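#help-structures
NK: newbie question, is this the right format to request a structure? protein is 5-formyltetrahydrofolate cyclo-ligase
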Amino acid sequence: MTKEELRNKYKKLRSQLTDDTIEQLSMDIANQLLQLPIWKKSYYHIFLPIVKQKEVNTEYILHILQGKDKNVIISKSNFDDHTLAHFLLTDTTVLEINSWGIPEPKEGIPIPDSIIEVVFVPLLAFDQEGNRVGYGKGFYDKFLSKCSENTIKIGVSFFDPEEKINKVLPTDVRLDFCITPSEIYSFKF
């Protein structure tokens, strides 16, 4: 399938999920994450979900990170050049929902891409080779390409992988893992 066909398919599948189902599946994903060997790192980037898009509720992952006393980083989107600026999430961080429905920090302590060790990556679909389809603006591909080569990239998805995403671009950054409510997919080759 093409990326556009996958976007349409998975937006439709997500739209059929109830709020209760999203909460249960999101909790299952967070519990699966506990099995990964990633918990000795210090700097974890997490996305805050776009509720109207029925994204994975990352609040459960956030609770795990805070319980393990990790440094949590969140982003602010720049829609002029499709880049992300990163900020440390603290007790005093004020969040605003932007015009696209994305919760973002109003301001904060800037964090460089280079020190982020683990990134939880939003997606609409992924395939068995670790390729992902997002909303098509390239925010995360630009961000991930600036991270260290050792940064662990973890997708989270309510759904199982597609066999293959067609027309993957050289600028598309592959995942190291993708977590679903019932499975951990590893793409370390």
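mod (FA): yep, format's fine, and the tokens are attached above. The first helix runs from residue 3 to 15.
NK: thank you!
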